[in-house]
Write a structure and sequence with these properties.
The chain is an alpha+beta fold. Strands 1, 2, 3, 4 and 5 form a five-stranded antiparallel sheet that branches. α2 crosses α3 and α3 crosses α4. The longest helix has 36 residues.
Amino acid sequence: MRLSAALLAAAATGYLYWLLAGKSAGDRRQAWGTREPNAGRKLLNYAAYVVLAYLVYQLSGYLYYGGKLLWVSSGPEPDPGTPPFLVRFEREMTASKKVAMMDFPDPSSCLKKAETNELSTDRLKEMDWGRIDNADEAQVCVFRLLGSFENLSYATDWFEAQGFHVPPNFSSARPYIESDGTQRVTGGYSIRKNGPKFPTKGAIRRAFRSIPYGMSVDPTWSKDGKQLLWVQTVFSTL
C-alpha cells in the first residue's frame, strides 16, 4: 500500500511539474507578446504549486521509509523490544514489521505524551493512533500494550477504550479457544462508519485506507491466557 501511494505521488508530482513548467513557459511567451498577465491563470498556478509542494513532501516521506526498509533488510536483526514482539510464522517477520519494531521499541513509545512514565492500567489504554501509519505499526503497538498486562482479562476494556467493538464470544470473559488451546480475543472497527483508524494524516494515505469497510485486530494468548503470543490485523473488503 505504501508503494502504491508512493508511485501515485511520484506520478502526480512529475505530471504537475511538467504541466506547470509548460504553463510557465507559455505564460512568459504570452507576457512578452501582450504584456497583459492573466490573473485567473496565475491564481490557478499558485494553487497547483501548493499541491506540488504537498506531493513532494509526501514523496520524501515515502523515500525515507523506503530507505529504512532497505536498511533492515540488509542489516542485523532488530531488538524485539519490550515486551519482545513475536509473530506466528517466521515468514510474517517482514521488513516493514522490523522497521515498526525499531520505531516502537517499548510500550511508552506507543502512548500519547504525558507527564508521567508510569505504565498503569489506564495509562496503557492511551495508545497514540496519530503516530500509526500502517498495519505493521498497529500490530507492534497493540502487542506492546496488551502484552504489558498480566493476562487477557484486560483485553476487552482496552479495545473498547480504543473505539473497537468486542463480540461477546470473542471477549476476555469468553475468549475463542483455538484447536491448539490458545485463546483469542477480537476487536472490530468499522472503517465505513468511522473512517480509517490510521493513518490520521495525509490525504493520499487516508484515501487508500478508506477502501476496506472494516478492520479486526486479533491478539492470541497462551493456553493459560497469561502470555500474549502474537497479534494479527485483518481488513474486510467488498
